[in-house]
């Protein structure tokens, strides 16, 4: 039968994980601390979350500690021990010295755990949990940790030097290291190496690849040449070996699979990384393309089982840095659990995180959870049902076009409210409490937190305040501008559904039809239901004239008294007859005893042969297993189709869309929107009157027709270097090495211009609104106005940026696209900063529809393209002849010519027509159209034939670029002078009360 096959498969999973394990290893259990320290994971997670706020590297550092612990005599926390007269600390082994870090955070975790559960949790288990939580909080998978390790009483520096893989290891050496400790030398090796998808490495760990690889006097031939040049600048020969750079050049702080993509394009930072893909004939190369998260979890569990001390072995240290004195704190021996439990906990344990983050409001509304909890606690005092009602609202929101707060919208002439869908009408409740939460949050953080995120947090807090688990919410959702009553009627599960119908409902929205279904149904462990939702079971089930045969006879009689035939259908009763107001696992015991109130509940256990029966039994026996699975499923459900970035809006009132009120500035009361900035821009061009007439447009720019293109270029070059923070505007300061002006980077030197115009804008704004508007926002608005005043589109500029206090010339050289780049290199530059490498690339390149370029930026195309001695074959012959006259070989490289031959000072779509005619001035422009098979070609064709499509895409990409790595809230400062940071970094008023808001 299906359930038997399932059990056998689950057993196989555990057997695979524990293959070859000793009896001691087999004692590890996911439930080891269920009774002695049930909140240990939550405690560790909270310490870790706080550490992340000040140290984004900490996740990678902690997982590395766990690796380096397990590779030396197993996972016994030996790496944490300090030197003593009898302990030769592993911290000073070659692979760890001046490199291993995070010990203070482990100390904090241990202290917090000891306060809650003294003498119970080992340092080895703390490291294990910290590693898993580090991955999960960084965007990677979550999994069930097998626990019960004990701590060693010694360390082994010699073995650390022998066993730990090195950054310079060949593939053969790496394989040996993995085999020696009991891991396999292909799947485990590749999967665990994938932890280098986040974190940093010091120059000394890879500098030999840059200059003298294997004593050849040459660089490593497997290293991408562009990356080689970047790394040589960062790590010059004989330079500071402790300088850090990102292990993953694409998404350095996220746990994803970009590390493997980097290997395929020869951008692995360490030799030991690149060897996995570049060693000829290696069996690891094919694994690079396999499912990463699933393999990583399996290998982490296997590594965590290397030679653990269990039972009475070792000790539970009171201080992770030293062994106990004479006291050996005894702990309970572990017990084995059902194989099914592990399979449940591991199944599908990596919910897609989209763009959501646990730190989304860290700077803009750091107390949002506390604010919502405070409102909820007051609501609980007068309405014990409110927790169950709020979690139900979150469910019913997410099942209809994703978690976008559409369920909260009232009826209007254009909104067909979901509140009146059959599953919600006269049933969904708690809207007033959401209103109160929104009001409280708006008071603290206006226009920052979405209603969708408020619902998400309220659901989690409702569970926690009712005795259930707590978890880290992934946040950053935005609110929909519409509702869909029809889809609500179609998608929402019904209390009358059969198991087949329930399974279909869950599959249809992207949830799985066994684990998610059973776990999320467990939310019926508290709350109430009206008689009308189950009375058919009492008298005329499925039109048989008889009650539901799966309903307990005693329970049936009780319900018939409460809900007589033909009686009041709105009478309420408890969903959980045992503990009606507590979030626990009694709901599953009720199902086993045939006391599920709703048909949809009882179907999970009473449908013959159902694969849900075994899961119900596990959750019935083990509350910890239910809580863990419930959290996983809630996070997965919360990730259903979220609106993020610039999608949707942040409603000011959860019951209605913003309408015109969406266009507001947080500092509008002080600065009358950006009127002064627009006015100052017009004054610089000549007079406002001239701009009112299309016929006088070009005369308005007589003083400097190029200024608009120059200003938009400044904004581009600002955002590509550590985000849109006004860093490009900073001058060098004598005797201040903290500012290495980006103006002198290769892409800007003797090229970037318009700084005086920005100064004039800043002066005008400071006169009207002193200390309010950042230089970064001035650049953003100036760009939009430059485009619009030149005949292009206008868009709403999100505002609220703050200014950086430093500049980074080195990063400017690395990040800024150059006019000589191939399409592959351009794509790399765009993806590196977080833009997409097709639509954003083509749309933003369209800014070359106006402005000028110097001969030095394209002359190699005219005479000696790619060192061939011939011109670029993709350059139109007529244009080639014209340009050779303008820019003779060996001539003045600063001579200017138009980027767009057709309409050089108008913002239109002629740039794309030029590309089609091989009249793109710069190599980087023409590559978009002339690279064979490029995915950019159809986009160029579309924009060439449809100016509206270009304008719309350009506006979207500009907004996206304007959101790169922002400083908001109290980060950075509001400079008084855009060319220099404020004296002593004196703080100024926040430019916005939170994140970006909309400009007029």
From TrEMBL:
Catalysed reactions, semicolon-separated: 2 a phenolic donor + H2O2 = 2 a phenolic radical donor + 2 H2O
Active site, UniProt feature: 396
Coiled-coil boundaries: none
Signal peptide region: 1-26
Cysteines joined through disulfide linkages: 365-445, 398-403, 451-654, 531-563
Record keywords: Calcium, Disulfide bond, Glycoprotein, Heme, Hydrogen peroxide, Iron, Metal-binding, Oxidoreductase, Peroxidase, Signal
UniProt xrefs under Pfam families: peroxidase (PF00141)
GO MF annotation: an example: heme binding
Record-marked site positions (Transition state stabilizer): 392
UniProt enzyme class: oxidoreductase
Cofactor: Ca(2+); heme b
Binding site for substrate: 493
Entry EC number(s): 1.11.1.7
Residues that, per the record, bind Ca(2+) 1: 397, 400, 402, 404, 406, 418
PANTHER family (alphabetical): PEROXIDASE 22-RELATED (PTHR31388:SF270), PEROXIDASE 72-RELATED (PTHR31388)
Protein name (Swiss-Prot/TrEMBL): peroxidase
């Amino acid at each position: 039968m299906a359930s038997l096959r399932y059990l056998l498969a689950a057993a196989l999973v555990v057997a695979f994980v524990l293959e070859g394990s000793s009896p001691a290893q087999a004692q590890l259990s996911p439930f080891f601390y269920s009774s002695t320290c049930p909140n240990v994971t939550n405690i560790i997670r909270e310490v870790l979350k706080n550490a992340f706020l000040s140290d984004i590297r900490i996740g990678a550092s902690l997982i590395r500690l766990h690796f380096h612990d397990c590779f030396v005599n197993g996972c016994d926390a030996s790496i944490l021990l300090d030197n003593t007269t009898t302990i030769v600390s592993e911290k000073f082994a070659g692979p760890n010295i001046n490199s291993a870090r995070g010990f203070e955070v482990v100390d904090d975790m241990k202290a917090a755990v000891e306060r809650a559960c003294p003498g119970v949790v080992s340092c080895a288990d703390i490291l294990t949990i910290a590693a898993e939580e580090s991955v999960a909080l960084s965007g990677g998978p979550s999994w069930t940790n097998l626990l019960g390790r004990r701590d060693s009483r010694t360390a082994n520096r010699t073995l650390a030097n022998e066993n730990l893989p090195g950054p310079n290891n060949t593939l053969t050496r790496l394989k040996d290291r993995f085999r020696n400790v009991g891991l396999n030398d292909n799947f485990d090796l590749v999967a665990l190496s994938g932890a280098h998808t986040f974190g940093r490495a010091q120059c000394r760990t890879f500098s030999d690849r840059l200059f003298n690889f294997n004593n050849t006097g040459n660089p490593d031939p497997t290293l991408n040449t562009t990356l080689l040049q970047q790394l040589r600048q960062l790590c010059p020969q004989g330079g500071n070996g402790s300088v850090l750079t990102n292990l993953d050049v694409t998404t350095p702080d996220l746990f994803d699979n970009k590390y493997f993509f980097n290997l395929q394009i020869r951008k692995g930072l360490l030799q030991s990384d690149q060897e996995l893909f570049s060693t000829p004939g290696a069996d690891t190369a094919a694994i690079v393309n396999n499912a990463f998260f699933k393999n990583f979890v399996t290998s982490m569990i296997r590594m965590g089982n290397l030679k653990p001390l269990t039972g009475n072995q070792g000790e539970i240290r009171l201080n992770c840095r030293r062994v106990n004195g004479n006291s050996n704190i005894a702990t309970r021996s572990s017990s084995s659990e059902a194989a099914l439990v592990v399979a449940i906990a591991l199944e599908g344990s990596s919910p897609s995180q989209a763009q959501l983050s646990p730190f989304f409001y860290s700077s803009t509304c750091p107390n949002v959870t506390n604010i919502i909890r405070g409102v909820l606690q007051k609501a609980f005092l007068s309405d014990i049902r409110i927790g169950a009602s709020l979690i139900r609202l979150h469910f019913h929101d997410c099942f209809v076009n994703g978690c976008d707060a559409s369920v909260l919208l009232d009826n209007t002439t254009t909104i067909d409210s979901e509140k009146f869908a059959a599953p919600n009408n006269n049933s969904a409740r708690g809207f007033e409490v959401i209103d109160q939460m929104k009001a409280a949050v708006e008071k603290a953080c206006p226009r920052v937190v979405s209603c969708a995120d408020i619902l998400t947090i309220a659901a989690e807090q409702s569970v926690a305040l009712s005795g259930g688990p707590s978890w880290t919410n992934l946040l950053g959702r935005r609110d929909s501008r519409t509702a869909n009553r029809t889809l609500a009627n179609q998608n929402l599960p019904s209390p009358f559904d059969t198991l087949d119908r329930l399974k279909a409902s869950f599959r249809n929205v992207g949830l799985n039809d066994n684990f998610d279904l059973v776990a999320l149904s467990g939310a019926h462990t508290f709350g109430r239901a009206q008689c009308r939702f189950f009375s058919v079971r009492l008298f005329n089930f499925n039109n048989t004239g008889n009650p539901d045969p799966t309903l307990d006879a005693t329970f049936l009689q009780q319900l018939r008294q409460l809900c007589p035939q033909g009686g009041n259908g709105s009478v309420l009763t408890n969903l959980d007859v045992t503990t009606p107001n507590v979030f626990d696992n009694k709901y599953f015991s009720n199902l086993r005893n045939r006391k599920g109130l709703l048909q949809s509940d009882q179907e999970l256990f009473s449908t013959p042969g159902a694969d849900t029966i075994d899961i119900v039994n596990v959750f019935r026996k083990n509350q910890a297993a239910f809580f863990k699975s419930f959290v996983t499923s809630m996070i997965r459900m919360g990730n259903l189709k979220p609106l993020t970035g610039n999608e949707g809006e942040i409603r000011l009132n959860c019951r209605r869309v913003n309408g015109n009120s969406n266009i507001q500035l947080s500092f509008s009361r002080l600065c009358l929107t950006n009127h002064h900035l627009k006015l100052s821009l017009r004054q610089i061009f000549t007079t406002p009157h001239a701009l009112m007439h299309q016929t006088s447009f070009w005369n308005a720019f007589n003083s400097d027709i190029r200024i608009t293109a120059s200003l938009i270029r400044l904004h581009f070059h600002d955002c590509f270097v550590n985000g849109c923070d006004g860093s490009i505007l900073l001058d060098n300061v004598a005797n201040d090495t903290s500012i290495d002006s980006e103006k002198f980077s290769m892409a800007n030197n003797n090229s970037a211009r318009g700084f005086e115009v920005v100064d004039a804008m800043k002066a005008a704004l400071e006169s009207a609104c002193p200390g309010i508007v950042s230089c970064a926002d001035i650049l953003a608005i100036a760009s939009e106005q430059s485009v619009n005043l030149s005949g292009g589109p206008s868009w709403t500029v999100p505002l609220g940026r703050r200014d950086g206090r430093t500049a980074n010339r080195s990063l400017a050289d690395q990040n800024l696209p150059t006019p000589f780049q191939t399409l592959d290199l351009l794509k790399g530059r765009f993806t590196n900063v977080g833009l997409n490498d097709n639509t954003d690339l083509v749309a933003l390149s369209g800014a070359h529809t106006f402005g000028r370029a110097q001969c030095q930026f394209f002359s190699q195309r005219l005479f000696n393209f790619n060192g061939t001695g011939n011109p670029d074959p993709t350059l139109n012959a007529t244009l080639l002849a014209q340009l050779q006259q303008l820019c003779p070989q060996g001539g003045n490289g600063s001579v200017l010519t138009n980027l767009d031959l057709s309409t050089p000072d108008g913002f239109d779509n002629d740039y794309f027509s030029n590309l089609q005619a091989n009249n793109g001035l710069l190599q980087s422009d023409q590559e978009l159209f002339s690279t064979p098979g490029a995915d950019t070609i159809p986009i160029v064709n579309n924009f060439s034939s449809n100016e509206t499509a270009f304008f719309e895409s350009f506006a979207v990409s500009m907004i996206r670029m304007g959101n790169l790595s922002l400083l908001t809230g109290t980060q950075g400062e509001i400079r008084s002078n855009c060319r220099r940071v404020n004296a002593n970094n004196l703080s100024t008023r926040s430019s916005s009360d939170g994140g970006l808001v909309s400009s007029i």
